[in-house]
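Reviewers asked in the last cycle whether our approach scales beyond single polypeptides. To address this, we selected a multi-component target totalling 446 residues and predicted its structure end to end. The input consisted of the following lines:
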Amino acid sequence: MRHIISPTDLTVSELSGLLELAEEIIESPKKYADVCHGKKMATLFYEPSTRTRLSFEAAMLNLGGSILGFSSADSSSASKGESVADTIRVISSYADICAIRHPKEGAPLVASLHSSIPVINAGDGGHNHPTQTFTDLLTIKNLKGRLNHLTVGFCGDLKFGRTVHSLINALARYENIKFVLISPEELRIPNYIREEVLEANNIPYVEVKSLENSMPELDILYMTRVQRERFFNEEDYIRLKDIYVLDAKKMTYAKEDMLVLHPLPRVNEISTDVDDDPRAVYFKQAQFGVYVRMALIMKLLEVM
Amino acid sequence: MLNIGGLNQGIVIDHIQVGGAMKIYTYLNLENLDCSVAIIKNAKSNKMGRKDIIKIEGTLEDLDLDILGALDHRITINIIENGVIIEKINPILPERVTNVLKCKNPRCITSIEQGLLHSFKLTDRTKGMYRCVYCEQSFDRR
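The resulting structure, written as structure tokens, was:
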């Protein structure tokens, strides 16, 4: 039995197999419509989320399985003070697999230590969000045709943005990747990513403040939202929340085949006038998220 | 330089990061020992500029010296017998330490989950860097 807690829990080769399966599902979804018949997925969401939870649930339903769970800590026994360890021990007897989102970092790892069913981390605070990373990788692979030889820009909140940390970690394992890290001083990537991932592996990167100046060299632009829930200080959030806005004018500086990704939800950081640009793939990305979660559920349940 | 000649038999924990002596004093539970303990704070050091030192008279049974290294990776431990240093020990950092260091990240699951052991793994031996196994936040020795 395996758990997926971090995006690097899968080797490059296993990840390649996962993405291939996801692409097979995209090609022939009907072939997989019943492979999880009789299986149940528990979605344990201690923190509000729309798309991640629904994406997991859609994935399981698309495979012919069933779902159960809760969508906030208030509607679970956590509000009575139950520990994550106790909750998962009980849920293990109700379901065959579970996806857990929790505001506290490391909660899915704690769950996996006490679980008798596969646990998928669906996001833990500002820490990891592996299925978002798999979604991002599938989007890039499917639409770009490769995961190597890319200049990848990350823009916005690079400090608390767990999707950014996870994707940097994952892409760092591929050949000839260069990172352009675009953020204000206060929201630069954490030292441990800089030192233990980028510098330790001699991966080229630059840290800059200007989005416009960076646009021409990018193959991928990964926009992020400045998240209110990650700030302890409201004043800092208000000062930084609209610092970068990608609009149609800035898109004119970009390559014709650059892709704009965003983990969503988008607030102001991408103007709606970008949505019709064929390079804006963030809604397709959400669709890819369902396919890659279908592939992951199948792999963990060993149904193929 | 400080003189350790006054100690006939005992242990000198040297090169403690300034301000770190009390943490080690507390961890070793020295207040409950039936022997003399001297804490020297802010001593001059050629190597570190300033440092703390703990002198303990007598022996400490079952002292896990490597765990001391996890608390402060630069310390040296001098074993004194008959007024002279008979052994100088640089602790080897353990790969994992449990319930010695506490995670200070308020977003970490260890801040709320009952009965959860505080566990850290060594991620950089040169820098003596430990990270919480749950949230991966580095241990801040300050």
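Chain B is about 10% helix and 35% strand. We regard this as preliminary and will revisit it once experimental data from Aim 1 are available.
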